[in-house]
Amino acid sequence: MSEQPRQGAECDLYRDTWVRYLGYANEVGEAFRSLVPTAVVWLSYGVSSSYVLADAIDKGKKAGEEPSPEEGRSTRVALAVVDTFVWQSLASVAIPGFTINRLCAASLYGLRTMTRWPLTVRKWTTTTLGLLAIPVIVHPIDRSVDFLLDSSLRKLYPSVGKPSSS
């Protein structure tokens, strides 16, 4: 992801800067699950979840600051918060965390049954595979969550002024 804001767009702290990478903390935690105490993995979920909550609040605040009639302001804010929170929860925490968890569990099992490598080597190999998978899974998951929300939740509110979560 680029550290520079998009051309003609305001810099979004949660999408255009290093802060974006806090959303991947749980994926890193899942990759290291076989090497670190469970509390460290849960802490990584806390970091990612805090990122999701902060981004949702930020998008709600920005939606509230847009110049428009006061009558639809609270609805616009609520839609921005809900849309961003649901999108980020799925695309940054739940689906990638599950994906990396299952990939690492399967690779650890596969290495145990197919090799005679020492446990430490198997665990580090699994962690490496999990870390290498993170950049590969991000964009397909993001697009899938866009499709899912466009096909469900986003049909419940008007397309005019629809929040952009991705």
Automatic annotation (TrEMBL):
<dbReference type="Pfam" id="PF10558">
    <property type="entry name" value="MTP18"/>
</dbReference>
<protein>
    <recommendedName>
        <fullName>Mitochondrial fission process protein 1</fullName>
    </recommendedName>
</protein>
<dbReference type="GO" id="GO:0006915">
    <property type="term" value="P:apoptotic process"/>
</dbReference>
<comment type="similarity">
    <text>Belongs to the MTFP1 family.</text>
</comment>
<dbReference type="InterPro" id="IPR019560">
    <property type="entry name" value="Mitochondrial_18_kDa_protein"/>
</dbReference>
<dbReference type="GO" id="GO:0005743">
    <property type="term" value="C:mitochondrial inner membrane"/>
</dbReference>
<dbReference type="GO" id="GO:0000266">
    <property type="term" value="P:mitochondrial fission"/>
</dbReference>
